Amino acid sequence: MNNSQGSTPAKPAAPRAHKGYRSRRPRPKVKQPVPQNKPSVSVIPLGGVGEVGKNMTVIEYGDDIVVIDAGVKFPGEELLGIDLVIPDITYLVENVSKIRGIFLTHGHEDHIGALPFVLRQIQVPIYGTRLTLGLVKNKLTEHGLMRDAQLHEITADDIINVGSLELEFFRVNHSIPDGIGIAVRTPVGLIVHSGDFKLDQTPVDDKVLEFSKLARYGDEGVLLFICDSTNVERPGYTPSERTVGDTFRSVFAKTQSRIIIATFASNVHRIQQVINTAAEFNRKVAVVGRSMVTVVDVAQQLGYLTVPKGMLVETEEVDRLPDNQVTIITTGSQGEPMAALTRMATNNHRQIAIREGDTVIISATPIPGNEKLVARTIDNLFRIGADVVYKDVAMVHVSGHAAQQEIKLMLNLLRPKYAIPFHGEYRHQTTFSKLAQTMGIPADHIIRCNIGDRIEFNAEQGQITGSVEAGAVMVDGIGVGDVGNIVLRDRHHLAQDGVVIAVVTIDKENGTILAGPDLVSRGFVFVREAGDLLGEAKSKVREALTTRTAANTTEWSILKNLIRDTLNEYFYLKTKRRPIVLPIIMEI
Amino acid sequence: MNNSQGSTPAKPAAPRAHKGYRSRRPRPKVKQPVPQNKPSVSVIPLGGVGEVGKNMTVIEYGDDIVVIDAGVKFPGEELLGIDLVIPDITYLVENVSKIRGIFLTHGHEDHIGALPFVLRQIQVPIYGTRLTLGLVKNKLTEHGLMRDAQLHEITADDIINVGSLELEFFRVNHSIPDGIGIAVRTPVGLIVHSGDFKLDQTPVDDKVLEFSKLARYGDEGVLLFICDSTNVERPGYTPSERTVGDTFRSVFAKTQSRIIIATFASNVHRIQQVINTAAEFNRKVAVVGRSMVTVVDVAQQLGYLTVPKGMLVETEEVDRLPDNQVTIITTGSQGEPMAALTRMATNNHRQIAIREGDTVIISATPIPGNEKLVARTIDNLFRIGADVVYKDVAMVHVSGHAAQQEIKLMLNLLRPKYAIPFHGEYRHQTTFSKLAQTMGIPADHIIRCNIGDRIEFNAEQGQITGSVEAGAVMVDGIGVGDVGNIVLRDRHHLAQDGVVIAVVTIDKENGTILAGPDLVSRGFVFVREAGDLLGEAKSKVREALTTRTAANTTEWSILKNLIRDTLNEYFYLKTKRRPIVLPIIMEI
Known about the structure:
Chain A is an alpha/beta fold. The first copy, chain A, is built from 15 helices and 27 strands. The longest helix of chain A is centred in the last third of the chain and has 25 residues, at 527-551. Chains A, B: This is Ribonuclease J.
């Protein structure tokens, strides 16, 4: 765990200007010769391996570093009070002069969310496709970082040369449009990073994953394939996004009431399908929820969302429309306490309240850890008398990640010498390894690495040769890295049994008690019930201190321990709980 | 939420002795006449409706009350520090003289776990089948409550008359042996409570659910069916427990390494299948984990588990056996931090450590809320190099609850006039209602009730006519009900942002500051990072207090508010966090 302060950024050396990029540059016909005396190429994941979240991969050759993605991770419930977790980028700060750019595969938070924190420490160029950059701009504007940002829009057909590295891109399918994978041509060999991908044969935007480029890479020879492994446990294929559209259509067809659909704000294709279905059934669409409004705005402006004229209505207009003309698309598919659907379901939303007879489609599956929140929302909706369509009863969501058959196809197209599973916990890495072995890749060519590992490849072989400073940095409020394990341990302890503070004012000359002991508690016992308990505890402390006075100790640490031990013992005896006991001694 | 103290039990009136029970009493051939002038019968759920857990149902006719089950609920993560949740039994305490007995459907914690707390408040007879009572005895012995316990063993063929009520029982299939449903014959009509059930056509103990009794009840006429609704969202049938045995067999057949199987301790049939498979493949079995050892002991003693001679070995012997003769059956299938498998997977178990090459079967699905814990255990096992067989990759678990087709069969057998879904959240209640309507039961005859509702039935109709005091009582350590919403709210607040204590000693005559202000924090910021923050905060408080002194205020509440406001504002400005601020003023 890293506790370094983010508020005093290292002074970065000015990054070398990247050498520009050209559109549709013909792919070189000859393979790069594998250099024998040149240094090797290293891959260093700074996040996203052995975990799902905060994706960040460093590719380093000589004096050139490219970084793929800069994501956040949302904290599990065990990280009490933490807002976000970001990668520790010490290695990037130390090597800022080498960094040629951060290349973004797509606009999900676990790939772009750490950018504001990264850019406060290092100023480097950012490359991304149009929609990805659209979302990045929004984020950087919010953080007041747009002025100095060096954003470079790319398309999947661009080729970019930075130092000794050449980057190509290929379009992938995912649960957000404009996703790409990245091929990094190094003097040692070709490294292909899948990005987050699935193969959708019938994508909503008709843009199928670019098989042909992958086939060409395979022919050229792939040194290393870094592959999305999130769904590697699932046999078969991930269904097409269009299957969700079919569900929408069947629900709309039989419904005369208002229809409210909650989904991930970033799933523009899903939103497009809502809009298409609404159009088909003569309904208007209102967009609710801050992030949903933002994404719909950005996606529309940039041409990723096609909305018929007059289709979108303001939230206030909803009440003026007949029920069978209303569609509301909203955030809150994860039951997040502050999200719009959650509020609508508890009558806490400023504008919309779910009513009896409404039909609510929760077009998502709960992210692990959110199951109970989602269940609570569904329950609240049912209590109101809404009809709820959710994953247990209908095909309302498909994953954005490749299942086994898609990963196999990818491996067959690329025929990589080495493979690294990313975007997965250790069990995904292991399952990927088994699957890749069935495709003929030797076990020691499938590298299950940890955050910070340096995996080094030369012409002969690839292996983990060391590690760099890396890990997780916690963000809480404004603070970046000022909450570490000690603070978290205290929060856990406080959460379990609360806190009792014991204050006593003593005469610093002779240790006489001048005031107190006073006891104050929070989160320990209900005070009305606990009157006797705290009263008795106070006597115990006084007694202990009085006995002590005979020994004439005015040593603070001894007094504090005495108070702490007395209270710990007494409270455990009486309640079997162990609140944090904080003795405070005031001297006069 | 009820905050009444459990530690001072109401003095119970001695319950009337039950009128005894007879085995195999022939069922009366004539229907009970529906009385016109007699009082109605009431059903009052004290737990288990609108929730999964702490099942407890009261059936009341005139001066006679029978209670079905007395379960606990395991707290969600939001109930910080809480160990257990039990039903508020105020209504039972107030009506103790009417209670003819608590009838247990089976030995799961959510049906028997509250007994120790209940029996400390009311002394009433307990009825249950042999295995159920075996588990109850264990529990009551642990709590030192066996001396006064009135336990009555029943079989599914017994008929028991208590006051004006007659109780019959019918065998059901469930994920623990010896489960029963209960038919309560009242002067108003027959009430059938399903218990937790599934229909297993090929149960491990060959004891199929007693269809014939249900058919007879149907012919007799059923006023009300109280039905397990946990799996009502699932179409089709719940698979037979034997399908898990098939998975075990296929894993054992191809494995030469040690096999470790984690499952629910109470699933005796599952344990039986492990033992059978081990026998088939010439392996021994070691039993690990406190609750697993207890259940295997009790089940063996009572004849619910058949173990070939010499099959079970002590844990110490495991290391002396060749790997291909070792089976270990253990707790920890939910990733519980203190359970045996969790410890084995982190090398924290006293006797067993998982090794590379071991095969671990997690024969369970995560209970909602435990997903992350289970995922962490699987990950740890993979990291060690174990082969892990879990629900995502094999058929390692089946549910113990009926799916839609089974519930429909039950409804067709019983043809009840009214139905109440229990053992389900509101969405299960609603889905049950829809399903029952498709079977011809009118919507207003399917009652989705809340805890504490009194549902009253007479010859003409059934409806909710009122409610009794009821709810959830939280158990934390020894304390029963001394942690309520205020304490929990504080624990949440403490968990989010920690606590800052500000102490100042003042002269009570003129308000001069004699010592302090001193600030102490826990769970707020890492102290090394926060030196300046707390130092600056201290000056702010001093400044505020000094200004105040001019106004000569020595009013405590004003001073405290001044300190609190000053610190809240300062901390939020600097950190965007809101720790609990506790001002303490000492006067001399």
